[in-house]
Specification:
Layout lengths: L1 H17 L5 E7 L7 H13 L4 E7 L2 H9 L7 E2 L3 H9 L3 E2 L12 H4 L3 H10 L9 E14 L5 H4 L14 E4 L2 H12 L1 H6 L4 H4 L5 H15 L2 E5 L3 H6 L5 E5 H13 L4 E4 L5 E11 L5 H11 L2 H11 L2 E2 L4 H7 L10 H4 L16 H5 L1 E2 L8 H13 L4 H34 L1
Parallel strand pairs: 1-2, 1-3, 6-7, 6-8, 10-12
Antiparallel strand pairs: 4-10, 5-8, 5-9, 5-10, 5-11
Helix pairs in contact: 8-11, 11-19
The chain binds pentane-1,5-diamine.
Amino acid sequence: MKKFLILAALSALLLSCSSNRDQILKVYNWSDYIDESVLPEFEAWYKAQTGEDIKVVYQTFDVNETMLSKIEKGHEDYDLVCPSDYIIERMLNDGLLLPLDFAAIPDSINYIEANRSPYIRQVFREINPNIDANDYSVAYMWGTTGIIYNTEKVTAEEAGTWDIIRNPKFAGQILIKDAPRDVYGPVLIYLKQKELQEGSVTLQELMHDSSDESIAAVENYLKQVKDGVLGWEADFGKDQMTKGRGVVSLNWSGDAVWAIEEAAEVGVSLDYVVPEEGSTVWFDGWVIPKYAKNLKAATYFIDFMCRPDIAIRNMDGTGYVSANGAFEVLESQIDEEWDPIDLSYFFGPEASAVQVNPVLYPARDVIDRCALEHDWGKDTDKLLAMWSRVKGDNASSLTYVIIVLALLAIVAAILFSNRSRKRRRRKSHRK
Ligand code: N2P
């Protein structure tokens, strides 16, 4: 027994030595959010830069909250994760992030600083009023939340308002992103139209509104939406739209770009709009959680992601828009098919009239009617509870009626068969 224990301890030791953590980089990113061919390329680039081996262990998640819980509760040792703005805000408040340290990439060109757009720098400054998110995170992709719609079934006017998600005309063909904050924000903006127009509340204030009253109003609205919902989806919505099964999808702009292109190839015509009432604009960024084990490779990886050619490949492979401010990235997206739009807010004065897809890069007026979501701290639990109440009992009222009728029918059948049995027994006694 003693010999066996010594052997077991020795093999555990050998195993831990052979899986040298310095040679592993654990990345946890959104699904469908990278051109995966860049991963082996990073391994080769890292070797060329540092002379060291690295193996990327790549895992994906579908919603921010899944990722956050693995770090908050599970203390998982991911070296890099890619949360959205309001989660970065929360992780900063909770001391869950390590600051970026460029001393970790002495041999590399610093693509991170070279390509940060002034717009992104300013937005990241607004993420957390107490701590500058630019010191802890590097924006990866960004976009808006809006409506993807089938142009043969839905008019641009119908899609131009958030009311479309409870329009009975499209019942059974509506897809909603299974992302509580990204649905709550637009619905609250819609419900507070009057106050927004009167100026008694601002879009930014609404992004902090976790009052019981507002949560109840959104819950009430979503319960009206629910019966028409084809699916609460984390990632299958875009696919359902390209197949024509869904005609309306509350979704992110990057999924819209992907869906519009795929659908066109099979003769389905889709478009995307940010409803006139306003919406949310979001930014996902690379961060290094405090339980990370390989800071050096993590920093090199962020730097590699900021190389313009790699940013372009990730954009083209996913449909999402890189937060990279290099002019090269803009040039790669120019196409004469588009009307010129003013993107000077993002790329500087030279980009005042550029022909790019407006779903990819929203024009300034669209950005101006969108706001950044903010962390609610402990109140987030109230939102998640509301979300499960809305989604949890997935059955519609019709389903309840059917269940009650079926139960009544079963009871009636049992009563009827008991009575006929008794009658038969009585008859046989008489004989
Ligand atoms: C892509 C995920 C996009 C994240 N599947 C939007 N914040």
